[in-house]
Amino acid sequence: MSEDEKEPTIRKVTDRLAVRFPDAPKTLIAEIVAEEYGSLDTGRIRIYIPTLIENSARNRLHREFDTVTPGD
Questions:
Q1: Predicted TM-score (pTM) of this structure
Q2: How far is CA 25 from CA 4, 12, 16, in A?
Q3: CA spacing 20 to 30 A to 57: which of 4, 15, 34, 48?
Q4: How far apart are CA 27 and CA 31, in angstroms?
Q5: Which long-range contacts (CB under 8 A, 24 or more apart) does 62-65 make?
Q6: Is the pLDDT score of 2 beyond 90?
Q7: 13 near 57, Cβ under 8 Å?
Q8: Residues 11, 14, 16, 19, CA torsion sign
């Protein structure tokens, strides 16, 4: 993903996860999403990065907040 796509992707994933984890501070969610983005940024198959980022960040938030939400 280009730098132009990075921020909107992080923002969209953060917003979706903030709805699913209302007890988590949005700044923490954004930080986790950015870290997950960074870990996948060098991947060759770029189309799946937003989905992979969201899944990894959601798993981390589940572990930290021990919350089960419908649809997970």
A1: 0.70
A2: 25, 16, 13
A3: 4
A4: 6
A5: 64/24, 65/21, 65/23, 65/24
A6: no
A7: yes
A8: negative
Nearest one of 24, 27, 20, 22 to 54, comparing CA atoms: 20
Name the nearest CA neighbour of 37 among 23, 18, 51: 51
What is d(CA 48, CA 69) in angstroms, rounded to the nearest whole number? 23
Q: Per-residue pLDDT tens for 4-50? A: 778 999 999 999 999 999 999 999 999 999 999 988 877 676 777 88
* pLDDT tier at 1, thresholds 50, 70, 90: low
Place of tokens 């700044």: 27
| Structure token pair of residue 24 | 């988590």
